Amino acid sequence: MPPSGEQGMTLFREQRPDIILLNVVMPGLSGHEVCRRLKAEPETRDIPVIFVTSQSQEAEEVLGFEIGAVDFITKPINPVIVSARVRTHLALKQQSDMLRSLAMLNSLTKVANRRKFDEELSLSCRSAVAQLSLSWRAASVKDVRCRWCCWIWTISNGSTIYTDIRKETAV
């Protein structure tokens, strides 16, 4: 268990757990902010988050669901209930992962399909733009437009297909 929200974010990015039980009140980043950040990142957005808190107001529960939590457990906790909810959300996550995997593969050849290619390209480009953005911000460069270009070569039926993707991104 990480003792703070910042350490939790680092741990979640590195280990990519199947489920996260997250306290709403933590030192540093609140549980709500950690959940917002997890749901904003493509690498962690599909990890189910269950809030565990002593706050039992309906507004708190609604806020948790609005920012991306899948469940809400109030303290004091009942281990049987927590175990049942974790098992349920782990089963849903496993099914979701399986469906996502099947959607990314050609059912006959089991080779990654165009959807998988497009998703990986999008993730790679977003990651590159984010890294450039961080380095430019560190260098105090303001209002920079990043023009990136990807050329993709694909061999299909013995022929070469050339695709030029250009995009301008504000960072």
Automatic annotation (TrEMBL):
Domain of life from the UniProt record: Bacteria
InterPro entries with a match to the protein in the record: Bact_response_regulator (IPR050595), CheY-like_superfamily (IPR011006), Sig_transdc_resp-reg_receiver (IPR001789)
Pfam families from the UniProt entry: Response_reg
Limits of the Response regulatory domain: 1-90
SUPFAM superfamilies xref list: CheY-like
Gene Ontology biological-process entries: phosphorelay signal transduction system
Keyword annotations: Phosphoprotein
Protein name: Response regulatory domain-containing protein
Organism: Oceanisphaera arctica
Upper taxonomic lineage: Bacteria, Pseudomonadati, Pseudomonadota, Gammaproteobacteria, Aeromonadales
